[in-house]
Design brief:
By secondary structure, the chain is mostly helical. The chain has helices spanning 14-40, 44-69, 93-118, 123-136, 143-169, 172-192, 199-231; strands at 71-78, 83-90. The protein is built from 7 helices and 2 strands. The protein has a two-stranded antiparallel sheet. The radius of gyration is 20 Å and the shape is globular.
């Protein structure tokens, strides 16, 4: 049986709740991006919306996968004078493998789409990158670490790009978006440390949610700034 659980027992199900909130946040960012496109008519906002929708889809698959892992069977047997209640965790190998593969694939594709918005790639490079992303999500002993290392690299590049943009336009919201992506990137470091203690998994989930929530606030600022500019 393939069963990979990085969460401490007391946090079982907690990550599912956090991921549900993350999906709401990511879809909200996508909605704000679409509204910003209507105001500014910049196609980059369309690409942003699609990227965040893909990321939200990846979290949905992670939730479905975690359900197969945390599927609890509560059974009470009457043994005369003792009621024995026990809890087991079972996972479906096929659902686990497919679910995590799709989650990782969509997550990396979403991050790459965000990166490529400001770093246009030739078609030959795009096919190569997609192939490398596909390879890095295949199931093997190193997949977990390769996935989070790749995610960290893409997020670090996105963060760097926003700070480069800030050095040119000096807009506070651009810097705020850069810091937000930096927080999300730092969560990948904690995910890498779960082999030390599973408590880092909890920290990583919370930090990741904080980062995406900050992003939601940043895009709300962009939308509000656009409306105020139109009034002027």
């Amino acid at each position: 049986m393939v069963q990979v659980i990085y969460s401490p027992k007391w946090f079982y199900g907690g990550d599912i709740i956090i991921d549900l909130v993350s999906i709401f946040v990511l879809l909200s960012i996508a909605l704000f991006s679409l509204r910003s496109y209507k105001i500014r008519k910049n196609r980059n906002y369309i690409y942003l919306a699609v990227s965040f929708i893909v990321l939200a889809g990846s979290f949905l698959f992670r939730i479905l996968t975690n359900f197969t892992v945390y599927y609890n069977i509560l059974e009470t047997r009457d043994l005369g004078f003792v009621n024995l209640t026990y809890q087991t965790i079972k996972a479906s190998d096929a659902l686990f493998i497919v679910g995590f593969f799709v989650y990782r694939l969509l997550n990396l594709l979403g991050l790459y789409m965000l990166y490529s918005i400001y770093n246009k790639q030739p078609k030959s490079n795009i096919f190569l990158i997609v192939y490398l992303i596909f390879v890095s999500t295949t199931f093997n002993k190193l997949t977990y670490h390769v996935f989070h290392l790749t995610s960290f690299t893409l997020l670090a590049l996105i963060t760097r790009q926003y700070f480069k943009n800030y050095s040119k336009n000096r807009k506070k919201v651009t810097k705020f978006i850069g810091y937000s992506f930096g927080v999300v990137a730092s969560s990948e470091i904690f995910f890498e440390l779960v082999t030390v203690t599973t408590r880092f998994y909890v920290v990583a989930e919370i930090v990741q949610l904080i980062g995406y929530t900050l992003l939601l606030g940043a895009f709300f600022m962009v939308l509000r700034y656009g409306r105020e500019k139109d009034k002027d």
